[in-house]
Amino acid sequence: MRKLFLFLSVISLVGCASNQLGDIADISSADQNRSSSPLKISARFSSYHCSDYFAYLDFSIENPSSKWQTLSGLKLSFPYDSNHLFHVVQGQRLALWREGESHRLRLKGHNDGLTALAVAGLGIGLMATDNDAANVAGAALYVGNAVNEVSDDIAQGIDQVETADPVLGNYLIGQDIEVPPGMTRKFWVVLSAQEQAPLMAAIGGEFDDNNGAPQVFKMPLEGWESCQWQAKRKDFLQSKLKRKRMTQYVHQEGIERNSLKLKMAELINKENELQQARINKQVSN
Hints:
Layout: H1 2-14, E1 26-29, E2 40-45, E3 55-62, E4 69-77, E5 86-88, H2 91-127, H3 132-162, E6 177-179, E7 184-193, E8 202-208, E9 214-220, H4 230-243, E10 249-252, E11 255-258, H5 264-284
Antiparallel strand pairs: 1-9, 2-3, 3-7, 4-6, 4-8, 5-7, 8-9, 10-11
Helix pairs in contact: 1-3, 2-3
């Protein structure tokens, strides 16, 4: 009974699959005489594919209308007018990234498997001792390892349902996109960035709709905290403050805070708040 309860708890914690990958983008027509696109666009970082120098984003584009919807000439835009600091990986470099990423994931899977095996082995070893406390600890290690494997498998399965297969036909940039009526399509894109690029907790873009009317969208990105690639942006944000020797106060959008007490998480949260404020301001304008 206890094992069943534990298994059901793991499933409930992992959650269910969804078409929506995050907050729906605000979309507006650049031509005030044209209506905004009915599409629902959302996106998030993939912690599975994020690495030190590359970000992998999953996109979901839902068409709730009764007509086919087209996105032509889609271009992405990045925070703080920093488009020149971010790059969409395309062409031969995308093929080389896929080759390197496959090797990285195989190596990671091998090492993770060895770690899990060592933890399970330690648990079994403790369970075999005559010490009651050690038996309990060993059982906890062994069961905990099994629970982690189950939750990881469920999470990976949900992720595969919610996101696109990483094939060129589903790549977000470089081709026109059509979404059938009442359906959702999933896409992926790989980004790189220069070291001085700002922290990216939001993204925007532009495209032409069915009627050739330019549409602009902006939205926050889910999963930016857990993307390994974002660590480089976070390090830069912190080092920038240190280089300026702001030992007393940091002035950010009219807010003064003691920089000596700013922790990494607070810096990241503040950066996210500022980006969201700018997104809202740009959309309202």
